Amino acid sequence: MPEGRKGRTMVLVDIRETPSAKAADIFLQIRPGKDFELATTLRALVKGQHVDAGRVAETGVAVERLQEIVDRMKRARFGVIFFGMGVSMTRGKHMNSAAILSLTAEMNAFTKFVCMPMRGHGNVTGADVVLRWTTGYPFGIDLSRGYPRFNPGEFSTVDLLVRGDNDAALVLGADPGATMPQPGIDHLARIPTIVLDPKVTHTSRLARVHITTAVTGVSARGTAYRMDEIPLPLRPALVSPYPTDEEVIRRIRQAVAAKPAWTPAPATLKGSPYTSDTGRRL
Amino acid sequence: MITLTLREPPPVPLEADVLSPDTIAPLTIDEIRALPVQLGKRQRRLDDFFAVEGEPSDEVEIHGDVRRVKWIGRGMTRGVLRIRGGAGMHLGSAMAGGTIEVWGDAGDWLGAEMSGGLIHVHGNAGGQIGAAYRGAPSGMTDGVVVVDGSAGLEVGMRMKRGTIVVGGMVRDFAGLQMKGGTIVLRDGAELRTGAWMNRGTIISLKPIALLPTFAFAAAYNPTFLRLYARRLAPLGCALPYDDQQGRYQRYTGDSAVPGRGEILVWQPRG
Question: Thinking of the domain A6-117, which architecture would CATH place it in?
Answer without folding.
Answer: 3-Layer(aba) Sandwich (3.40)
